[in-house]
Amino acid sequence: MDAYILSLTIFVAINVALALSLNLISGFCGQISLGHAAFYGTGAYVSAILSVSGVPFAVSFVAGGIAAGILGFLVGLASLRVREDFLAITTMGVNFLFVGFVRKQGWLGGEIGITAIPKPMSDAGMATLAWILVAATAFLLVAIRRSWLGTGFTMIAQDEQAATSLGLNVGRFKLAAFVMGTAAAGMAGVIYAHVAQLIVPDAFGFVVSISILAMVVVGGIGSIFGVILGAVLLTLLPELARFANDYKLLIFGALMVAVMLISPGGLAGAFQRLRAR
Q: How far apart are CA 57 and CA 63, in angstroms?
């Protein structure tokens, strides 16, 4: 397979995994998160530091996911005190804090970042690993949707106060969503770090969080198939229109507005309406 196509396949898989992981938090549980890139970056930096120090990839892969999950747990605790717009601002602040922190830490490479990150396997092997992560994340979301946990998430997303009045432990459900979603994002970050073999703070900035959110919204928030489609589309679109790459955020923003006006359910909602007709 052509090296460019193989590399593009890997990054499509990474973005699909990121979009699915955010969908668990925002789509399933209704918790607005604007800082998903911070968890993505946590996994990448933890794995990079460990791997450069000689730790086996299997260990650094798990450690990256765990570290991102721990950060997600801490942010989840904050979500118990704030809601809706305030939660969005809180998660956005976490993203800015993360980028600011890694920029000022010499042992994390500062502005230059971390270089010479070892690649544990061939690009074909990394592509396989990335799509295994996608399959595992999608399977997790399907299993959750069919379980009592998914029912609890749906109740919280629709009416948190009503869920509380029915005796649902809202705090535990929120924490579960944040931990699982952020751990998956951290694992995607591990794969990114070892494929790129170079990570810098700006690779996990607020712009990246907005891009991930755009994939979820365009695909159809709460829909598994729709989010996968949205992530694939918004990853390939800049590649197909490189002349407009400088206007990437403008295009993403316009797509989100168009989706909200034309099809609030995203691509998944549009497909459902077409099928109904």
A: 10
pLDDT tens digits along 138-161: 999 999 999 999 999 999 888 888
pTM (2 d.p.): 0.92
User: What's the DSSP call for residue 141?
Assistant: H
- Single-letter amino acid code for the residue at 228: I
Contacts with 115 (C-beta within 8 Å, 6 or more apart), sequence order: 109, 197, 198
What is the rounded distance in angstroms from the CA atom of residue 145 to the CA atom of residue 139? 10
Nearest to 253 by CA among 206, 203, 218, 205: 218
Round to whole Å and give the CA distance between 221 and 91. Answer: 18
In contact, 235 and 222? CB cutoff 8 Å = no
For residues 143 and 148, what is the distance between their CA atoms, to the nearest angstrom?
10
- What's the gap between Cα 111 and its chain centre? 23
Strands 114-115, 198-199: pairing kind? antiparallel
Nearest to 40 by CA among 10, 82, 12, 71: 71
Q: Which amino acid is at 147?
A: S
